[in-house]
Amino acid sequence: MKLEWDFSELTKFANNLTQMSKFEREMKFATKELASALLKRIKALTPIGDTYQLVNGWNGNNFAVKQVNDGFEVLLVNKDEKALWVNDGHKAYNQYGGPYPIKRRIKVTSPHQWQKGSPTYYVFGHFFVERGILQLENTSEVEQIIMKKLQKWWDSV
User: Fold this and answer.
1) What is the dihedral angle through the alpha carbons of 93, 82, 134, 24, rounded to the nearest 10 degrees?
2) pLDDT (tens digit, 9 = 90+) per residue, 47-85?
3) Are 136 and 38 in contact (CB under 8 A)?
4) What is the C-alpha separation between 74 and 67, in angstroms, rounded?
5) 37 near 145, Cβ under 8 Å?
6) CB–CB of 30/149 below 8 Å?
7) DSSP one-letter code for 113
8) Contact, 76 vs 60, CB < 8 A?
9) Rounded CA gap, 38 and 28, in Å?
10) I want to staple 88 with a disulfide (CB 3.0 to 4.6 A). Which of 27, 80, 112, 125 is the partner?
């Protein structure tokens, strides 16, 4: 009695598994390209100031992409410690406890203010990170980058 085994389906399954690693690699490259496009927009929206310190504080194109659940994540970093305050806004006080002479400020006298009883001055944020994300979402560049990488993967399969 002679037994014959057909391993063609198992070989096909193994080949499909190797193609998934290529797919993940292409999606990592797409994530890096999207991060680069986002960083370009954020840098354009970042206030320049006197020393260009805030604009030059962004990390370059060395993006560390890590896989999180079903997607990928990239961390964009600004080395300037004031970046968060400029983006989100902040309270304004001088060394004597009084408000700084800033043109763009509001006087807050709500019950939810930071120091009860005295007015608090607040400097508005520029929200350059959020505006950069919105600009990128409103273009077709995201779809083009992802479709280009999917097409490259599909051609290799």
Assistant:
1) -150
2) 987 788 999 998 877 788 888 988 899 989 899 988 998
3) yes
4) 9
5) yes
6) yes
7) S
8) no
9) 15
10) 125
